[in-house]
Write a structure and sequence with these properties.
The complex is a heterodimer of chains A (about 220) and B (about 80).
Chain A (H helix, E strand, L loop, with lengths): L1 E6 L6 H10 L3 E6 L11 E4 L20 H10 L3 E5 L1 H8 L6 E3 L7 E9 L15 E8 L3 E3 L2 H9 L3 E6 L15 E5 L5 E4 L16 H10 L1
Chain B lengths: L1 E9 L6 H12 L11 E8 L4 H16 L5 E7 L1
Antiparallel strand pairs in B: 1-2, 1-3
The chains are: A alpha/beta (about 220), B alpha+beta (about 80).
Amino acid sequence: MKVTIVQFPGTNCEYDTQHAFKELGADIEIVWHKAESLPKDTDLLVVAGGFSYGDYLRSGAIAKFSPVMKAVSAYAKDGGKVLGICNGFQVLTEAGLLPGALKRNDGLHFISKHHTLKVENNDNIFLEKLQKGDVVNIPIAHHDGNYYIDEAGLKELHSNNQILLTYSDAEGNVKNPNGSVESIAGVCNKEKNVFGLMPHPERAMESILGSDDGVKMLQGFLAS
Amino acid sequence: MITAIVNISLKAGVLDSQGKAVHHALDSLHFKGVEDVRVGKQVVLKLSTDDKAEAMSEVEKMCEEILANTVIEDYKIELI
C-alpha cells in the first residue's frame, strides 16, 4: 500500500500524515508541488493540511495552479483515491474536485480543539469501518472551515450519500462550531473516490494524545 | 495602459460574518441607520493593453479562474 502526500509551500501536516499512515503499515512518499507526475504505484493520494501559499487570496486558491494539481486531477478523474484534509479539502473544492466551498468561520475566530463528529454515511471506503450514527472525537484546527453549498448542491449531496461527517455533540446531536451548512464537516464526490474533511483524523491516532478515533477512518483506505 | 479594479464580495444570500461583525461594531459606536454591511476585497490590476474590450474579457477570465470563487463570490470589474 503506497500513500503519496502532496506538499505545497505552507503545507504543515505532511509529516503528521506520514506518521499516521506509517503506523498503519503503509509506504509513504511526499511529493513536492512542482512534480508533474505522481508515483506510479500510488494507492492513495493525500492533500495534507496547512496553509498553502499563506492562504493568500483564498485558502487553497493559489495551490490549485501548482504543477502537481494537473496530475492530481487526472488521478482523481481516473478513479484514483484522493483524501484532502483541512487545507487539502479547501484545495480540492477550489480545484473543482469536490462540490461547495469553505468560507471564514461564522465566529471569525480560528478554532483549534477536539470536536465530536457524527458519521452520516458509511457506504464508501473512507468510513466503511464505522457505523452510520457513530460519533468520533477528532481535532479541528481551521479559520476557513465554514462549508457552503447552494440548495441544489445540497440536495445532490443528500441524494448521493455524499455527506460523510457532521459536527455534533457527544450524543450525535447537531453542534455547529463554524456555521457550516447543515453542520457539514466532510464530503465526497459522486463517484466516492475523492474525500475531503476539515477535521484532522491523522492527529487522532493515539489515545494517550486524546483520541485514536482517526485509526478506524484512515484504515478504511488501507483495507481496500 | 488600463487599470482594472475588481471588487469581490460574497454573493447575496451567502452570510457575510465579517460584514455582520462590522455592522455590530458600527452600531455599538452609535453609528445608527446602517441597514447592512458587506465586506469584500479589491484587486487592482495594471494592464499593458489599451483595448478596453480586450481588457474586460481578460479580466473576466481571471475572475472566473482565480480571483473569485464563483461558488460563493460575485465580482464587479471597473476599467479606468
